[in-house]
């Protein structure tokens, strides 16, 4: 699987996310409170609303439409109405760049 340069580390504040589109697919890249980076599918599994406008709290993302929550480290659906987990993708930091494996 190729590593894709997605963004600069400074592009994402702690406890926040950015949208990243690549190859016809959309992703969400998160920065945790402890400065680790994570990546999931960018669309909620409930109604395919983009998570970029959602609220990040600690290690969870809340969907902006129906308030479903996911643990962005594992993709696990934590609160209804979502019951399908998000796909997650490996991330790594090289210098000041965040790369994802797609």
UniProtKB/TrEMBL annotation:
Keywords: 2Fe-2S, Dioxygenase, Iron, Iron-sulfur, Metal-binding, Oxidoreductase. Pfam families: Rieske. This is Naphthalene 1,2-dioxygenase system ferredoxin subunit. InterPro entries: MocE_2FeS (IPR012747), Rieske_2Fe-2S (IPR017941), Rieske_2Fe-2S_sf (IPR036922). One of its GO terms (molecular function) is metal ion binding. It comes from Pseudoprimorskyibacter insulae. The keyword Iron applies. Residues 4-100 form the Rieske domain. PANTHER family: FERREDOXIN-RELATED (PTHR21496), RIESKE DOMAIN-CONTAINING PROTEIN (PTHR21496:SF0). Belongs to the bacterial ring-hydroxylating dioxygenase ferredoxin component family. The keyword Oxidoreductase applies. Its cofactor is [2Fe-2S] cluster. CDD domains: Rieske_RO_ferredoxin.
């Amino acid at each position: 699987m190729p590593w894709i340069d997605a963004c600069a580390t400074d592009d994402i504040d702690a406890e926040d996310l950015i949208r990243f589109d690549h190859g016809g697919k959309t992703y969400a890249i998160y920065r945790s409170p402890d400065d680790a980076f994570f990546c999931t599918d960018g669309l909620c599994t409930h109604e395919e609303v983009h998570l970029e406008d959602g609220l990040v709290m600690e290690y969870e993302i809340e969907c902006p439409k129906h308030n479903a929550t996911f643990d962005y480290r594992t993709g696990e659906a934590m609160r209804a109405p979502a019951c399908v987990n998000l796909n997650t993708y490996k991330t790594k930091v090289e210098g000041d760049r965040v790369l994802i494996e797609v």
